[in-house]
Design brief:
By secondary structure, this protein is α/β, with parallel strands linked by helices. Helix content is 39%, strand content 25%. It has a domain of 117 residues: Rossmann fold (3-Layer(aba) Sandwich), CATH 3.40.50. The protein is globular, with a radius of gyration of 18 Å. The termini are far apart. This is Amino acid/amide ABC transporter ATP-binding protein 2, HAAT family.
């Protein structure tokens, strides 16, 4: 579904991603792990058209994404849940979801939008209770639920998630990861960037490891979970799958 070949991304004279290649097959859940500054988010920004200064090849369902605008990429079937959620704080929960459905409205698919509202509200019941509340007044966990729901309203073929567990309590992280696995089981193809490497790999089919902008390792999730280098660098002490990095 997605093929990236020799991708090089830069911010001015600073090269953030060096010749990265990867692939995502239809129905897969693929994780990209690595330390801060490894280039993970930069890679996702290039895929979604939010970073213009890149070289190489990004092909989604046989369509070259080079030069395509972010709205065109969304219409092609890619939705992103950005790092830090980036919801529309002054708008209500319902209006945020409507913004996610913008491309569906443009296609005149109002009945399908209503179905998607119901799907998101069933997945995240708290959003139904908060439907008319300003999004900026939600808790961090509720905002992450809204960000995921907003992305799903575009009916993506590929869902891209950037650090969905960041800053959340372990109980909320567990719930978010359960939702991700449910979506994958329903046929949504997922590309996941996540610092909680253990939790990410445990729900993934395959994984890629980035270090300072370079792809240094790839393999099945099971292989990476037992790889000594991965364990030493990214898995750390076994506090449990959903330890969020804060002091116990």
């Amino acid at each position: 579904m997605l093929r990236i070949k020799n991708l090089k991304c830069s911010y001015g004279s600073i090269v953030a991603v060096h010749g990265v290649s990867l692939s995502v097959k239809k129905g897969e859940l693929i994780s990209i792990i690595g330390a801060n500054g490894a280039g993970k988010s930069t890679l996702l920004l290039a895929i979604c058209g939010l970073l213009k200064n890149w070289e190489g090849e990004i092909v989604f369902q046989d369509k070259d994404l080079k030069g395509m605008s972010p709205p065109a990429i969304v219409r092609s079937g890619i939705s992103m849940v950005p790092e830090g959620r980036q919801i529309f704080s002054p708008l209500s929960v319902m209006d945020n979801l409507k913004m996610g459905a913008y491309t569906m409205y443009r296609k005149g698919l109002k009945s399908q939008v209503e179905e998607d509202f119901d799907m998101v509200m069933e997945m995240f019941p708290i959003l139904r209770e908060r439907a008319h509340q300003l999004a900026g007044t939600l808790s961090g966990g509720e905002q992450q639920m809204l960000a995921i729901g907003r992305a799903l309203m575009a009916r993506p073929r590929l869902l891209v998630l950037d650090e969905p567990s960041m800053g959340l309590a372990p109980k909320i992280v567990e719930m978010i990861f359960n939702v991700i696995t449910t979506l994958q089981s329903q046929g949504v193809t997922i590309l996941l960037v996540e610092q909680n490497a253990r939790a990410a790999l445990k729900i993934s089919h395959r994984g890629y490891v980035l270090e300072t902008g370079k792809m240094v390792l790839q393999g099945s999730a099971d292989e990476l979970l037992v790889d000594d280098d991965v364990k030493r660098a990214y898995l750390g002490r076994d506090y449990g799958d959903f330890y969020d990095g804060r002091d116990a």
